[in-house]
Amino acid sequence: MLRILLCLIFFATNGLAQSFTSTIRGTVRDADTGLPLVGATVSLSSTESGAATGPEGTFRFDNLSVGRYELKVSYVGYGTISIPEILLESGKEQVIQIRMNVAGKELEEATVSAARPVAFNSVQAITIEQTLRYAATYMDPARVATSFPGVAAANDQANGLVVRGNSPNAMQWRLEGVEIVNPNHLSNAGTFSDRPTSTGGGVNILSTQLLGTSNFLSGPFPAQYGNVTGAVLDMNLRKGNDEKAEFVAQASLIGMDFSAEGPFSKKSKASYLVNYRYSFTGLLGAMGVNFGGEDSRFQDLSFNLNFPTAHGGKVTFFGTGGLSSNTFEPDKDTATWEFDKDGQNILYKNKMFASGLTLDQPLSEKVSLRAALVGSTLNTSRVAYAVNSKTLSRAEVLDNQDLINGKISANVTLTYRHNARFRFRGGLFATLNHYEAGIRSAGESLKSYVFQPFVNWSLQFTPKVSADIGLHAMISTVQRTKKVSALPEPRAAIKWQIGPTTQLTASYGLHSQMQNAGLYAMRIYDYGPNSNRNLAPTRSQQVTLGYQKTFPKSSSLKVEVYWQHLFDVPVGHGLHDNYSAVNLVEEVPYEFLDNTSTARNYGIEASFQKFLSKDFYMLVSGSLYDATYVDYLGLRHNSRFNGRHTFSLTGGKELRSSNQDLWGVNVKILWIGGFRDKPVDAEYSRILGYTLYETQSSYTVKMKDYFRPDLRVYWKKSRAKYSRTLALDLQNVSGTKNEAYRYFDKRKDAVVTQYQLGLIPVLSYRWEF
After folding, report:
1. Regarding beta strands 94-100 and 21-30, do their DSSP bridges make them parallel or antiparallel, or are they unpaired?
2. Confidence (pLDDT) at 16
3. How many other C-beta atoms are found inside a 10 Å radius of the C-beta of residue 730?
4. Which ranges form a coiled coil (predicted)?
5. What is the CATH number for 114?
6. Are the beta carbons of 98 and 538 closer than 8 angstroms?
7. SS (H, E, C) 693-744
8. Average pLDDT for residues 737-755, to the nearest whole number?
9. Which of 80, 36, 86, 37 is nearest to 61 (CA)?
10. What is the pTM of this model?
11. What is the rounded radius of gyration, in angstroms, for the C-alpha atoms of the chain?
12. What digits encode the pLDDT tens for the residues 544-570?
């Protein structure tokens, strides 16, 4: 008996000590030309492993124990790259595409972006690993951005972002470097009027399973970015595994995901990556379960196909599409009807699709070409019926609206590197915008054309001083107008490397952005059916000064001061309200507008970031800012999004209980100054039956400060051929009631405050094999 017991202990001990392994591999290429770098030195932290890249710029580390690694790459004549926070799990390889920059004395810092930085100031990389680790992101890169300084969510229910006091409408979504329509399910989520926004929604249609490292920029923007004044979220797709098939299955209260990737054949490096997702609430809805009368459903399919070409080039064919809907039905017990909405039946549908081709091709040792063609469209519809309280049948139609927003965008960019101190990049973006709106029996359509040539020179004057100097131009015209706007936009940035760990930066940019399509298309019969089509783009001069200091253990401090002067801002002349386009989100004012107003945003931001090392990470960021606008009388007011401050604390700790088990505890705390609202005229609202603001009102009502703590706890377990993750996210774990907006409710016969979401628990299970 004793012998049997000793044998059981022996085998159990060996089982607990078993160490599962996997592979880290990838390619190292020149950031400008895309050519492979042969002989680059690649090393991994926590190991004595080191390797040199092969003829195709490839490297490989097999039989590595699962866990965290930091990868460093160096090459003669190139700046050293360090990539922290690499999580290696059993059953799935880590394939890393690295782009190295030539020359110059670079800041000695850990960077999560294995490519050339896109800007000197106001840029943050967002990795898949961060999206899967940060608390309450729901695998959405836009929700990760709320951890950055000066960034606030417009509403808990959606991922629309207020950046440096700008409206969410000032933000631009890009896919593979090209502007697309709003890529989100339920684009009406969290809005006052329950109508779609142009930049946000409940869930990102593009699944995190397909995303690589994305870039979030808050200005001033480099020369290749145009038609934007607020912020850019530039999403990039990752390449599927080109050597072996891999799969991910995930079930959560958000949705059911399944992704597959691998090579098309063993004889080529062509690969596929595809993901399908169906909402969990949709499954419950199919079984007759709803939440407060709401039945929300969505599904989406995304793919990325990668085909290598000669001399280190590649062609990709990608696409994403999604369907979503939200149905509100009144409670059959009419005694429970408390608010005006309770007596309505509302049907909302959302369809989005985007697809495109890219070509990346080195032409020589100094020249490379990139071309992209992307088409995207968003179609939304909303029908609201009044419901008879006696028969519970539909009565009159209260609202009936259809919107179609489409874009076809093409881009060609040529990069030429003369030597280590001089690089030139030039190109052209061309976009056709199509918009259709149907409201009741009336309808309006609109086409606009935007051409954006740009040139940019990267110069290194001394080993410590470098600069980017560029010129962007936006040439635009709107259908049925003779007006063509041709707006030159100079851009410049300079970086002074004071020492190995310290740098100063300064950036300037003049930027322009077309108006929201609804402003152009709105019929205002007192002034003519096309009265707003002559609106010019809004323009913005932006200056940012930055300081950055790096410390040991993969940490850094960044401080930035910024100033934004917006001009040619459309402003309205209404008797009961004075509109400024800087305050608009989803609503479309029935007002004649002209470009005679201005706005101003300025502030200071600071962030301290420690990447995940020694089982701990932290990102602390905050900002103090002021955002104001000038009305049509020339008076300056607080803007709608002038919360005055933002603060976020994001951090976490990992604990390894055995060789196979990894526990993680992650927190995020948001404290944001309350946004503003206009005073509601209760007397006239009662007479008219809808919300009416006081005559010539401005945003004088400040809502309470926004506070939200989030928590994420996960448990990862490795097996020989797979790994799995069990996680629990708790958004707003304190259940704080944050104010969203105020309106006049007919049934209540009073001004009502609408609150944002309370505690939202999301349980998920992820299986990678």
Report:
1. parallel
2. 46
3. 20
4. none
5. 2.60.40.1120
6. no
7. ECCCECCCEECCCEEEEEEEEEEEEECCCCEEEEEEEEECCCCCCCEEEEEE
8. 91
9. 86
10. 0.91
11. 27
12. 999 999 998 789 999 999 999 999 999
